[in-house]
């Protein structure tokens, strides 16, 4: 979108927050870059320059606006939903791959040379992988400076900087303030030591019912809970573990994070955003689905429905298998049994464990599961494939290959594969026409009742069929589609 200067200028003049993250506006006369919804008076069009990423604006010599904090705007839906190499690279950078494995490690994971990868990212984003990772480090540093009382040396290390000097230089360059000055602007110190209180922005509208209703209704005891109006769960992260509390607000999601290692901050935030599908573009989705006269009333009734995601794709795949042909309560019971058997314990009030790793599950005797023998065979095949790496469901996974690999496992049919594609792989076009709830909802609405006919009708909903699934499921009397009391 950044290449369409006229459209970008109109968005800036209207201060339309729906375009936050789609592009960034740099102002030649002030040397700052802003999000489209920045509250300051818009500059003259001839003084505007548009960039596809915050990193590109920073690399061009612009610093972040102190009013609108463009580095904290929602990410572009393109990087969440696209399946090409650039989108995969963006998701992997957000998940900390460059900080852990360097640019060569990112390139290897994507199947490119370092030079090819840099050329791809420069062409589409105006910045290479190092600049994109640096922009993420700067955002992590700002969060830690503003939300903790940590010494600056610890902030620098937790943000991924190699030295305090590099940390100081980057903060001054990006925010036009020293770290000390940035902290002085934050106001009162945090009220709970060790807990980070953050705001997760999103594109309005957002319908929280199916998001938080589903998470609360399907939560695994010990790993997840609903308490005091918030969804809480444990997180397994690259450098340690964490506990997050998420609660919906009118213009953001309140996020409270407790981490055993602050280097995991940006990764934890990225995973929470994927869990709640906060980088979706609800206006584009609702316009497409609302064009179908039979879906239009559902869209009008609950605009901004999201697709609940996951913080751990491997965990979700295991839970999807355990949920085959059983009630929600039975699926929670099966998962809780695994957690108690081989989950790693954590200290918290209310939560007790991290969900087990595939390696730990592969060593578990499947007889502990009170399921049919065929399901035990499928369980063993799944956790073994996840543990040895022959099945990749990570943020950089190829969705078509992942689908094929899942279908090759015993006990995996189209329903389970598409649910995993929808929730774990983040495919916005995943569709499950054989699902009983979908078929009943389709029949009641006057949509085709057979899977084949429904697939033909659903072509008009592409590439947002996963969102249509959420609307259809919501027509039934399902607790997962209602916010807990």
Automatic annotation (TrEMBL):
<dbReference type="InterPro" id="IPR010316">
    <property type="entry name" value="AlkA_N"/>
</dbReference>
<keyword id="KW-0489">Methyltransferase</keyword>
<keyword id="KW-0227">DNA damage</keyword>
<dbReference type="InterPro" id="IPR037046">
    <property type="entry name" value="AlkA_N_sf"/>
</dbReference>
<dbReference type="Pfam" id="PF02805">
    <property type="entry name" value="Ada_Zn_binding"/>
</dbReference>
<dbReference type="InterPro" id="IPR004026">
    <property type="entry name" value="Ada_DNA_repair_Zn-bd"/>
</dbReference>
<dbReference type="InterPro" id="IPR011257">
    <property type="entry name" value="DNA_glycosylase"/>
</dbReference>
<keyword id="KW-0808">Transferase</keyword>
<keyword id="KW-0010">Activator</keyword>
<keyword id="KW-0805">Transcription regulation</keyword>
<keyword id="KW-0238">DNA-binding</keyword>
<dbReference type="InterPro" id="IPR018062">
    <property type="entry name" value="HTH_AraC-typ_CS"/>
</dbReference>
<dbReference type="InterPro" id="IPR051912">
    <property type="entry name" value="Alkylbase_DNA_Glycosylase/TA"/>
</dbReference>
<dbReference type="Pfam" id="PF06029">
    <property type="entry name" value="AlkA_N"/>
</dbReference>
<dbReference type="InterPro" id="IPR018060">
    <property type="entry name" value="HTH_AraC"/>
</dbReference>
<dbReference type="InterPro" id="IPR003265">
    <property type="entry name" value="HhH-GPD_domain"/>
</dbReference>
<keyword id="KW-0862">Zinc</keyword>
<keyword id="KW-0234">DNA repair</keyword>
<keyword id="KW-0804">Transcription</keyword>
<keyword id="KW-0479">Metal-binding</keyword>
<dbReference type="Pfam" id="PF12833">
    <property type="entry name" value="HTH_18"/>
</dbReference>
<dbReference type="InterPro" id="IPR023170">
    <property type="entry name" value="HhH_base_excis_C"/>
</dbReference>
<dbReference type="InterPro" id="IPR009057">
    <property type="entry name" value="Homeodomain-like_sf"/>
</dbReference>
<protein>
    <recommendedName>
        <fullName>DNA-3-methyladenine glycosylase II</fullName>
        <ecNumber>3.2.2.21</ecNumber>
    </recommendedName>
</protein>
<dbReference type="InterPro" id="IPR035451">
    <property type="entry name" value="Ada-like_dom_sf"/>
</dbReference>
<feature type="domain" description="HTH araC/xylS-type">
    <location>
        <begin position="87"/>
        <end position="185"/>
    </location>
</feature>
């Amino acid at each position: 979108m950044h290449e369409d200067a006229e459209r970008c200028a109109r968005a800036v003049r209207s201060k339309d927050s729906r375009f936050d993250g789609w592009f960034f506006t740099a102002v030649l006369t002030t040397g700052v870059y802003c999000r489209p919804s920045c509250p300051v008076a818009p500059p003259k069009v001839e003084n505007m320059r548009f960039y596809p990423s915050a990193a590109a604006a920073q690399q061009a010599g612009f610093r972040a606006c102190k009013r609108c904090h463009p580095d904290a705007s929602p990410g572009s839906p393109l990087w969440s939903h696209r399946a090409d190499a650039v989108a995969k690279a963006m998701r992997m950078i957000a998940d900390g791959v460059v900080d852990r494995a360097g640019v060569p490690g990112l390139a290897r994971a994507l199947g490119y040379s370092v030079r090819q990868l840099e050329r791809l990212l420069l062409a589409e984003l105006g910045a290479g992988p190092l600049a994109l990772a640096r922009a993420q480090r700067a955002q992590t540093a700002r969060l830690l400076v503003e939300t903790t009382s940590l010494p600056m040396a610890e902030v620098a290390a937790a943000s991924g900087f190699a030295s305090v000097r590099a940390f100081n230089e980057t903060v001054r360059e990006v925010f036009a303030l020293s770290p000390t000055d940035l902290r002085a602007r934050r106001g009162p110190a945090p009220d709970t030591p060790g807990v980070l209180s953050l705001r997760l922005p999103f594109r309005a509208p957002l319908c929280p019912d199916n998001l938080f209703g589903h998470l609360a209704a399907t939560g695994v005891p010990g790993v997840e809970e609903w308490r005091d109006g918030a969804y809480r769960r444990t997180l397994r992260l690259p450098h340690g573990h964490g506990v997050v509390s998420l609660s919906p607000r009118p213009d953001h999601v309140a996020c409270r994070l407790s981490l055993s290692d602050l280097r995991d901050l940006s990764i934890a935030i990225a995973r929470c955003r994927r869990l709640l599908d906060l980088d979706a573009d609800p206006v584009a989705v609702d316009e497409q689905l609302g064009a179908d006269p039979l879906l239009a009333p559902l869209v009008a009734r609950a605009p901004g429905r999201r697709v609940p995601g996951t913080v751990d794709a491997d965990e979700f795949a295991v839970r999807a298998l355990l949920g085959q042909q059983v009630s929600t309560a039975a699926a929670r019971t099966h998962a809780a049994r695994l957690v108690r058997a081989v989950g790693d314990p954590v200290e918290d009030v209310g939560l007790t464990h991290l969900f087990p790793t595939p390696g730990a599950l592969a060593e578990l005797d499947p007889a502990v599961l009170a399921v049919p023998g065929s399901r035990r065979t499928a369980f063993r095949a799944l956790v073994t494939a996840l543990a040895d790496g022959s099945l990749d469901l990570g943020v950089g996974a190829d969705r078509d290959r992942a689908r094929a690999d899942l279908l090759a496992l015993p006990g995996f049919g189209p329903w389970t594969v598409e649910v995993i594609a929808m929730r774990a792989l983040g495919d916005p076009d995943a569709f499950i026409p054989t699902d009983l709830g979908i078929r009943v909802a389709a029949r009641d609405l006057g949509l085709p009742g057979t899977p084949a006919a429904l697939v033909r009708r659903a072509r008009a909903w592409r590439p947002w069929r996963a969102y249509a699934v959420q609307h259809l499921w919501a027509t039934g009397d399902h607790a997962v589609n209602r916010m807990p009391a």
